[in-house]
C-alpha cells in the first residue's frame, strides 16, 4: 500500500520544451509577417481608411488616381484612354503581375467605373486596393 502518490516523472516537463519553441517561433513569424510599411504615392493622394490591417505586396505595379481623376502608372502620367492598353501589356508580360490601386478618398464611385472596367477587361487577377489604417495620420 502506497502512502504517497506517485511522483510525476521529469519526462513530462521535457516534452513541453518543443511546444514552447514552436509557439515562440510562431510569435516571431507573425510579428514579422504582420509588419505594415508606410505606402508612398507619387501624387498627392489621400488613401481611404480601413479597420483591418494587411501588408501590401512589396514588388507590385502601382496605379494611382488623384482626386482630379489623373492617372499615374508607377509614377508616370497616363491618359485615361491609354489605361486599357497599358493594363493589357502588363498582363501580357506577366499574368501574375500584382497591381496596387491607390485611389484618393475624395473620388466618387462614378469616377472609378472606367478604371474598374479596364481592370476587369485586362484579366489581371492580383489587384490590391491600398488604404491607410483607421485612426492613422
Task: Give an account of the 3D structure.
The protein has a single domain, classed as 2-Layer Sandwich (Nucleotidyltransferase, domain 5). The chain is built from four helices and seven strands; from the N terminus they run ααββββαβαββ. The chain has helices spanning 11-14, 16-33, 83-93, 109-122, and strands at 49-50, 61-65, 71-73, 76-78, 98-103, 126-129, 132-133. The strands form two sheets. Strands 4-3-2-5-6 form a five-stranded mixed sheet, with no helix packed on it. The protein has a two-stranded parallel ribbon with strand order 1-7. Strand 5, helix 4 and strand 6 (126-129) form a beta-alpha-beta unit. The protein is elongated.
Short description:
The chain has 137 residues and is α/β, with parallel strands linked by helices. The protein contains 4 helices and 7 strands.
List the helices and strands and how they pair.
Layout (H helix, E strand, L loop, with lengths): L10 H4 L1 H18 L15 E2 L10 E5 L5 E3 L2 E3 L4 H11 L4 E6 L5 H14 L3 E4 L2 E2 L4
Parallel strand pairs: 1-7, 2-5, 5-6
Antiparallel strand pairs: 2-3, 3-4
Keywords:
137 residues, Nucleotidyltransferase, domain 5, five-stranded mixed sheet, two-stranded parallel sheet, 7 strands
How many domains would you count in the coordinates?
Answer: 1
- Which segments are poorly predicted (pLDDT under 50) over 5 or more consecutive residues? none
Distance from N terminus to C terminus (CA atoms, Å) equals 72 Å
Number of strands: 7
User: From the 3D coordinates, which CATH architecture would you assign?
Assistant: 2-Layer Sandwich
* Quaternary structure annotation: single chain
Query: What is the strand content?
Result: 15-25%
